[in-house]
Amino acid sequence: MRLGETMRPILLLILSALFVPNLAMAADFDGSKALICATRSAMECTENDGCERVSLEDNNVPAFIDVDFKAKMIKDKGHGQSERSSKIAGMKQIDGKLFLQGAEDGRDGIRDGLAWSIAIQDDNGRMVLTASGGDVGFVVFGACVPH
Predict the structure, then answer these.
(1) Shortest CA distance to 131 belongs to which of 145, 147, 144, 112?
(2) How far is 53 from 77, CA to CA, in rounded Å?
(3) Per 3-state DSSP, what percentage of the chain is helix, strand, and coil (rounded to 5)?
(4) Distance in angstroms (rounded) separating the CA atoms of residues 97 and 45
(5) Cα–Cα distance for residue pair 1/15, rounded to 1 Å
(6) What is the domain partition of the chain in residue ranges?
(7) What phi and psi, each to the nearest 5 degrees, are found at residue 3?
(8) What is the pLDDT of residue 26?
(9) If 0-12 CB within 10 Å is exposed, 13-18 middle and 19+ buried, where does residue 12 land?
(10) Which has the higher per-residue pLDDT, 81 or 144?
(11) What was the pLDDT predicted at 13?
(12) Which pLDDT score is estimated for 147?
């Protein structure tokens, strides 16, 4: 028996061991497990001024977002005020990412409604949340873990 024939099963075993954790992690971000997402940084963008980094606190971005797939809701879990929530209107897995979408009317009597989208990478849980309405858009970066 040649050395290559002996090494092939060992090589296959090593390669499969390397890929099994990634498959398990991908299952964490397929919509079957609730997630908690921590926000790290945010950008505010306008047509005239372009984009600039903004404070999470000054822009009422929650420190944590709870994603409840069974209830089809996302909830503010770290803003310090009353808990805000939004219904997940759409969910789809594309190209190694889980996409969630929704829209909210905002406060009564004010034209502050917005649409939002969250993209979560299934290999590492990194998250990008975008929200837009009227003349402004926000991009928030963070990461999610199952809970």
Answers:
(1) 112
(2) 22
(3) 20, 45, 35
(4) 24
(5) 22
(6) 28-146
(7) -60, -40
(8) 54
(9) exposed
(10) 144
(11) 43
(12) 85
Q: Residue 50: in which H helix or E strand, if any? A: strand 50-54
The topology under which CATH files domain 28-146 is: Lipocalin (2.40.128)
Give percent above pLDDT 90 in the chain: 59
Q: What is the pTM of this model?
A: 0.78
Q: Are 38 and 142 in contact (CB under 8 A)?
A: yes
Residue with tokens 């970066």, as numbered in its chain: 141
Please state the rounded mean pLDDT for residues 127-144: 94
Q: Which helix (H) or strand (E) holds 104?
A: strand 97-104
Q: Which tokens in the block code for residue 91?
A: 């969910």
Distance CA 125, CA 66 (A): 14
